[in-house]
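Customer escalation, tier 2.

The customer says the design service returned an amino acid string that "doesn't look like it belongs to this structure." They asked us to rerun it and document both sides in this ticket. The original structure tokens are below, unchanged.
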């Protein structure tokens, strides 16, 4: 079983590509390890 769903991964990637923040900010926002 995957740790994160495909939909969740896509949400995080889209946030990154839309320049919503750097990877550390997004990791904090989505509560994932950086």
């Amino acid at each position: 079983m995957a740790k994160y769903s495909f939909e969740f991964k896509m949400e995080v990637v889209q946030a990154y590509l839309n320049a919503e923040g750097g990877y550390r900010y997004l990791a904090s926002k989505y509560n994932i390890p950086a």
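Tier 2 assessment: The sequence is consistent with the input. The chain has a mean pLDDT of 93. Residues 2 and 16 are 21 Å apart (CA to CA). Sent an explanation to the customer and offered a walkthrough call.
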